[in-house]
Amino acid sequence: MADQDFISEIMGFDPSNLSAFQENEQKGSYNENIYKTNPVKGSKSEDGHYHSKIKILYNPFNPKRSIINQCRYTLQDEDGYLFVDSCLSEGDKSCRIFKSWKKLWFSGDDKKKEWAKKMYDKTESRWVLVQIMEDNNQPDLVGKFKLMKLPISIYNKLQAKMHPTDPKKTPIPMMDYLIGPVLEMDVTPGPDDPSNPQRKLREISYDLCEFETDFTPIMMVDGTPLFDDDEMEVIEEYARCKADVTKAKTEAKKEAAQQKLQALLPQMKPLYEKAIAYLKEEALDVDKEIGWKPWSDEVEKRVDRWIEKVLNMEDPKSLSIFEGKKEEKKEEKKEDDDPIPSTTSSEADAFISPDDDSLPF
User: Fold this and answer.
1) Residue pair 65/50 in contact by the 8 Å Cβ criterion
2) In whole angstroms, how far apart are CA 173 and each of 91, 120, 162?
3) Please, are residues 170 and 253 in contact by the beta-carbon 8 Å criterion?
4) Domain total for the chain?
5) Is 119 within the bounds of a domain?
6) Which among 260, 210, 225 has a CA at the least distance from the CA of 240?
7) Residue 165, SS3?
8) Which residues contact 146 (CB under 8 A, 6 or more apart)?
9) Contacts of 116 (CB under 8 A, 6+ apart)
10) What are the backbone angles phi and psi of residue 17, rounded to the nearest 5°?
11) Is 306 among the domain residues?
12) Helix (H) or strand (E) run with residue 147 in it
């Protein structure tokens, strides 16, 4: 006899509580944590640009992991699209998808090379934590901490300040919680081209975005100050001394500014502790959210099936994963009755891999 509690559960079951639907809702809520500045879809300004002000911040959970690389493959098979994060994100070239691409690309066969161009869809991006300081397009976001895809033009400006190529220049902490500057966003849409309307969306530019010259500390998520007037005076003095160190023309002036900085440290440490504690309470860990993670067993199986078909020059969309499982079972039964030697080639086939530095991406 069926369990009465289970019968009651089925009779009163809410169909919207299916786990599949819950997973979709989780993906949607994750997207809500991403800050988007699309001028075509979100601008409310007269010039059609997306204007806002943000602070790009260190990851409070791991400052060294504040700019996160993401390398993602988009695979398609009979069961739809699969977005797969690759360990190439971490500079690890052992990714099976990447290695399978190399087999085709460097096979010496033009047809296989063209096939690789068609089948492999890889995108790369960088992600950071930001706080929205001002945004008339989405005023409800002011004060909120979000994740943002970092455009290459802004990344280059950050790198020039934080990791200068000139050894004489002092790195500037652009992502500092207290003394980092605000980034003034001026995102421009692509050109209006009647013959190719997609250019307006595809050629969005961040080239006009610029960092302000003055410092601005983080604020609370409701848009109110995190620091009181006395604390702001200490931060202002510290920022001024920090700037003096950077701009000092002589070693004597630089040393004097550094001594002032040292004297302010006992007052500044509690303020940094306050900022970090608040960030850890309110902000996401960009590394945890975006950083590469090992594939699940199901993803591995699906990827391996996709790779096998692509290497055999077969369209992965032609056979369902579920049909594939049935075929596997049939094959296993057949091998039990009449063993057949495997004809599947291994990764170590006769294939000379060139240096990875010569790869086109």
Assistant:
1) no
2) 25, 38, 6
3) no
4) 1
5) yes
6) 260
7) coil
8) 33, 34, 35, 129, 130, 131, 132
9) 101, 104, 105
10) -90, 5
11) no
12) strand 145-149
DSSP symbol at 94: T
Full domain range(s) for residue 180: 34-226+282-290
Residue 231 located in a structural domain: no
Residue matched to tokens 């096939």 = 115
Cα(101)–Cα(280) distance, integer angstroms: 40
**Non-local CB neighbours of 137 within 8 Å, separated by 6+ positions:** 42, 43, 44, 45, 50, 51, 52
- pLDDT per position as a tens digit, 313-355: 999 988 554 455 544 544 444 444 433 333 333 333 322 233 3
Kindly state whether residue 69 falls inside one of the protein's structural domains. yes
Q: What's the per-residue H, E or C state across 257-278?
A: HHHHHHHHHHHHHHHHHHHHHH
Location of structure tokens 């961040």: 206
Q: Provide the angle, in degrees to the nearest 10, between the axes of the packed helices 96-105 and 297-311.
A: 10
| Tokens encoding 124 | 């790369």
* CATH, residue 51: 3.90.198.10
Given a cut of 50, the residues of the chain with pLDDT beneath it are 1, 23-30, 321-322, 326-327, 329-361
- Specify the pLDDT at position 167: 86
| pLDDT per position as a tens digit, 168-181 | 888 899 999 999 99
